[in-house]
Amino acid sequence: MNTQMTKEETNVKPYQELIREISTAFVHGQARAMAAVHSCLVDTYWKIGQHIVEYEQQGREKAVYGAALLENLSRDLKLLHGKGFSRSNLNYMRLLYIRYPICETVSHKLSWSHYFELLKIDDDLERSFYEQQAQLENWNVPELKRQKDYALLKM
To answer: What are the CA-CA distances from residue 52 to residues 5, 11, 58, 93, 140 (Å)?
Structure first.
């Protein structure tokens, strides 16, 4: 009987180790998958912004567009693809392309939600500062908002 207890006790530790290893692999895999999804989403929204701006400009240096374009796009794209294509979202996608005209300058370490917050900052230098800090400090979106709000309170 004493021998059986020893066998059970020795099997418990390796089994718990197996659980820990599988859990670690799963969590890391989930994180990599989410990062890939976020990166792809930012790229997609940048491309949508590019399409909107190029349509607006029609080969001209500056856009001459009617306010109805984003409204019409929003209505039609929501019918095709469901939510996510509000006028506001389309405007931010457009702004993403305008503020980051070279896709490679968009960080794939940040999600669309990060960029949604960053694009609210008009000043290029200030936006760049928060973008870099969000990457360096690994800020989530609530932390990015908090940092921006805190800086505004100090002014």
So the answer is: 70, 61, 10, 9, 29
Spatial separation of the C-alpha atoms in residues 99 and 118, rounded to whole Å: 10
Over 80: is that where the pLDDT of 55 sits? yes
Q: Supply 65's token pair.
A: 């567009």
3-state secondary structure of 67: coil
Counted domains in the chain: 1
In a domain, 5, yes or no: no
Domain region containing 137: 11-154
Residues 6+ apart with CB under 8 A from 96: 42, 45, 46, 49, 106, 115, 119
Does 6 map to a domain?
no
pTM assigned to the model: 0.79
Dist. CA 27–CA 120, nearest whole Å: 32
Reply yes or no on whether the pLDDT at 142 is more than 60.
yes
